[in-house]
Design brief:
- The protein contains no helices and 16 strands.
- With 200 residues, the protein is an all-beta fold.
- The radius of gyration is 17 Å and the shape is globular.
Amino acid sequence: MNETPHERFVMPGELLGTAEEYVPGHGTYEDSGRVYAALLGRAKVDATARAISVEAIHGIPRIGEGDLVYARVDELKSQMAICTILASAATNRSAPGAPEGPIHISKAKDGYTDSLADEFAPGDIVLARVLQGHPSIKLTTAPAELGVVAARCQSCHAPLTLGSKGLVCLRCGAIERRKQSREYGVLRAGENRGQDRPTQ
């Protein structure tokens, strides 16, 4: 595949282009004529074939207690946010097998949480700490530096931008609420993510 100067780090659900521009390749999916990233990795374009793909960050990290991870919120239940662990925050390497790591409502934030729908939405990418690695993984986003680091508007799917009144959609004007990390937007800020994370 021919690499282009437009290679960039992308997160799952990020819009890559339209089906008129690109043929969806490995690590992507098409929805309503638009091509989105299905993996956490680098987007690459084959100009000859007019195809776009996402190359996952290679390596097999071992997810253990105390580790910081990126996870995608897949489903909200009354007491649990069901998440898929995408990668180690320290290395940006994909987690083998995309393990599930739920966040209990008591571990979503410091203090009382009435509803997980006030803290997360399906599709959000969170920076979380592993509370338990075995026999099953459990996550927390309670500390201030943890929480949602990337989110999309629930109405129009555009990225949400941090504003004075919350997370703002610049496309439709919606304002949404999340348990956001102090590092909200870090997945768009550069490519050396996870190397300066707190290790408390």
